[in-house]
Amino acid sequence: LIRADGKLAGFALVEERQIIEPGAPRYTMADFFVLKIYRRQGIGQQAAWDLFRRFTGSWLIQEHGANSVAQAFWRTAVGRYTRDTYEEKRYGIPERLFLVAQRFDSATGR
Question: Is residue 65 within 8 Å of 92, Cβ to Cβ?
Fold first, then answer.
């Protein structure tokens, strides 16, 4: 759970993969949500950074291609955490459904 001043501000679900194939990420952000009244205050970024530190290793975070707000959030949060040493790719059909994904290793971050 994500808290701000002791109040519930959101939640995050991290998936840890038990069987790791070579080059595959160990952690994925299965879900991440911050209530609207707590957005743009740094609470989401801090929560993400806390998770990156708690679950040290290779990460994959994906956003729907049409969700430009989520893409901007994750590019900023991951970029600042890794000092822009992350990899970004697009998957799927660009004209229809696609995903934008950031890959990085949280051990090299802040």
Answer: yes
3-state helix, strand, coil in the chain (%, to 5): 30, 40, 30
Helices marked H in 1-110 — which ranges? 43-54, 68-82
Encode pLDDT of 18-68 as tens digits: 766 777 889 999 999 999 999 999 999 999 999 999 999 999 999 998 899
- pTM given for the model: 0.88
CA 27 – CA 1 distance, rounded (Å): 17
The Cβ of residue 16 has, within 10 Å, a number of other Cβ atoms equal to 11
Q: How far is CA 19 from CA 14, 16, 26, 47, in A?
A: 15, 9, 8, 26
Strand order in 2-4's β-sheet?
A: 2-4, 7-16, 27-34, 58-64, 98-105, 87-92
